[in-house]
Prior knowledge:
Oligomer: single chain
Number of strands: 5
Distance between the termini: 14 Å
Structural class: mainly alpha
Largest sheet: 3 strands, mixed
Amino acid sequence: MAVPPTAPREYAVLLIGSITLAASAWIFGGVEMWSLHTLLVGSGLTFFLSICPLPKSWNGSDGEHGNKKNLVRLFCFPVFWFGLFLLGYILLQASNPAWDFERSDQGWWVEEIAHIDWLPSSVEGEYDQMSAFRALVSFLAAFLFVWGVWVGIRRRRSALLMLWTLALSGTAMAMVGIIQKFAGADAVLWSIKSSNENFWGSFYYRNQAVAYLVLILSVSAVLYFYHYNRSEKTGQSGGPHLLLFTMIALVFASICLALSRGGILFGGIFTVGFLLLALLRWFFSFSTQQSFFLTLAVLILFGGAVWGCVRIVDFEAIQDRFGDVENSLHNASRDTRALCTKITWKMAKEEQVFGWGAGSWRYIFPMYQKSYPKLFYTHYNKKKGWLGRKFFKQAHNDIVQYFFELGIVGSVFLLLSFLYWVFKLLFYSAGNRFSAAILLLGLLMAFGHAFVEFIFQSPAYWLALNGLFCVAVKLIVLEHQRIYRSAR
């Protein structure tokens, strides 16, 4: 039976969605006002094109994308309701500020103001710096993208193209990071000066950059196992998975060169997990058992990738970066980030139901920070006492910070959105179990990394994270449906 051609509506969603997802690698982490709003516009167009009324010819010859059909799909999509409730909740927080941001020549502070105390509240901060409305925009961009892709993509080929776009764009960014390092670049993409000297690729903060590259490892690994399965089923001796293997090695080399401890740790765990699954899949492969030359080619490719990483990565610099692990663990309780997490958790328990408000952490934290001199001041002078002032914009622990800002109510909506993807992977992974397994490992690495860094605070990373899991799960579900139809 001939498959009807892809609907023009789906092509439109694919084009705008792919551009938006690929742009997340080049838009400076989404921390600039224009970059954040660019992501919002791209996501909004993706969503609009998936549900807006269009001429009948745009919905495909089989009517797969009928205007009413897509709305019904949207209303039957649990993540739509989880996201809608969360966005409404943050909007309610933003509309009911309990604290007002004030600034003078002496500095800045927050003052408590009249508000409805039995409703969720927030801090009325500066939008260009951080506020509940700015946090709302970041969440809105991610959810609009997910809603638009889930409803507007109905073909496996479309989902594959979108994942390939993300993988190639992210790999190119990884290469740029390597080139910048060896060229001694002093500006992000050789064009924009960064207040943080440790930038990487297009990101101002290397920790967010390498976290993004771990996502690229995830999407490349998902595609690797998917194409490996397709090659096996069609009896091909090679395929795109060989290219993806090389891309994974290149991206991991970029992570190591960035010298981010979190990136090396979580990227290393993911890469080891991928290699173990790849070897397991390769060992039981039919083509491997039948072809000596293919086996030899894979071994040479694997050895060449390892050799290339060893040649360009400075392992002594990595060792110096990690320092004395035993000593670091011994002093963990006195570490600045660990202390920030401890204080943030203490603050969160005071407003554990509704939270302090999205985007409020940087404004509320100083009120508690001053009780810890080693955390509040920069240094101690024997004659003058404590001097200087430390300023923190993030808690360096997104998990605890989100609980602090959103409380139990908001955190539940957010958690349910990710649990939905896990549910789909567990029940629709027939035929693509390795892809599902490596995607789950990628999710664990993302949340593990977020527990020690502020990677979720990058709108570009946040959109890429949600977009990756939406599109990858969509591909696995569509493949499961194809297998089910073939078996009938």
